[in-house]
Write a structure and sequence with these properties.
The structure is a homodimer. The first copy, chain A, is α/β, with parallel strands linked by helices and about 220 residues long. Chain A has one domain: Rossmann fold, CATH 3.40.50. Helix content of chain A is about 40%, strand content about 15%. The first copy, chain A, is built from eight helices and seven strands. Chain A has a seven-stranded parallel β-sheet, sandwiched between helices. In chain A, α2 (about 45-60) crosses α8 (about 205-225). The first copy, chain A, is globular. Chain A starts with a helix and ends with a helix. The model of chain A has no long low-confidence stretch (mean pLDDT about 95). The interface between A and B is large, with 38 and 38 residues.
């Protein structure tokens, strides 16, 4: 019993300290007029690919930056850099999620004139949901091959996000995945979710997300003015 | 500094205690001649579907039991029960992995005359890898839609497993996934891995895994004799 209590206390301590650092990061980002987006999903749901597609549409009109969270390797950061965009790698060496303190350590490297800062979290549909990074928007991605039964099985990521992106919709003809069912289930958990159906292959939904992001950036800047 | 030290100490305490309980579970299972298999993967890689296919091949000749680990819902346990097999649900309510103490709590429910005990872990390619459950074999699954770059990005699950199952191989014609590349990368991390290519749709690889499991069961029983 004593041990359980100790574990709970330490967890609260970690989360409490995370919340404080995230709050400071959020304040700085908002003051700089930067819209930060934290992308959450399982490995292989298409976070990096979605970022590539959004970046190609946005990079001529906006200043973009990407933070790549990975347990090991710089593979994703290299993919982003090959588009000519700045990408900062956080390698967690085993840790299953990003924490605000990891961002704080590299925060000075991030130019204050960015418009959008994308943060690709570690591939994990569970743990990253508990850690605020100071973002303005949280995206949860679910790919068609993962199955349409996931929102209720992994609710926390859906509860804490503002945007739900269904990815790899070009695979719908080959797989038993009901987009209406998954949308209804996600909205039952979190009725405020904005839902987008996307395919990086056909380009479906990419323009709609860009329009949404531009609107959110305008709203953020209007508040600052 | 003090806080970091405390966190590390508590984590070691949790893992140390987990190892002890897992050791006791392993001893009991081996004495009963039960081969326990712990299945690890991201959500939606096909753990439940693989279990369904293996069970259908094995259930007429062997006594099977399944422990289902999920954050929320009993959906997977219901799928297994609908095959006429006993399934015990562990709902972790937020926790991102199974721990040996969770199994210990339901251990008395598990019949001693089982041949195979399958343990489907929480869908998460990261955290479950750190927790021994007392299993004889650990399977890591990776589905074709997740991408062939995952072993080095999520090495722990591959290092601690004996078997690597590539699932959803029927999707290979539609997706850029190189089975040779992923196999080579996984073997570079862990040269002892047994690798199986499978498709629940076409049945590819299911028979081969059953043969492998039967051989492992015979070896376990031979040691007991």
């Amino acid at each position: 019993m004593e041990k359980v209590k100790k574990e709970v206390l330490v967890l609260e301590d970690i989360l409490g300290s995370n919340k404080k650092i995230a709050g400071a990061i959020r304040k700085k980002l908002l003051e700089s007029g930067i819209l930060a987006v934290n992308l959450l999903s399982s490995p292989g749901s298409g976070k990096t690919t979605l970022l590539e597609k959004l970046s190609l549409k946005l990079k001529d009109r906006y200043q973009l930056g990407v933070i790549e969270g990975d347990i090991e390797t710089e593979r994703d950061a290299e993919r982003i850099r090959s588009l000519g965009l700045p990408a900062w790698q956080i390698t967690t060496h085993g840790a299953c999620h990003l924490e605000a303190k990891m961002l704080a350590r590299i925060f000075d490297w991030i130019p204050a004139d960015l418009d959008f800062l994308f943060i690709e979290n570690v591939g994990n549909l569970v743990c990253p949901a508990s850690f605020d990074l100071g973002e303005s928007l949280r995206f949860v991605l679910l790919s068609v091959p993962e199955g349409d039964d996931k929102p209720k099985k992994y609710p926390e990521a859906f509860i804490t996000s503002q945007v739900f992106v269904i990815t790899k919709c070009d695979l719908l003809p080959y797989l038993p995945f009901d987009t209406d069912r998954v949308t209804a289930e996600a909205l039952e958990i979190n009725p405020k979710l904005e839902v987008f159906r996307t395919s990086a292959l056909t380009g479906e939904g990419i323009e709609a997300i860009c329009t949404f992001l531009e609107k959110k950036l305008q709203e953020l800047r209007a508040k600052n003015a």
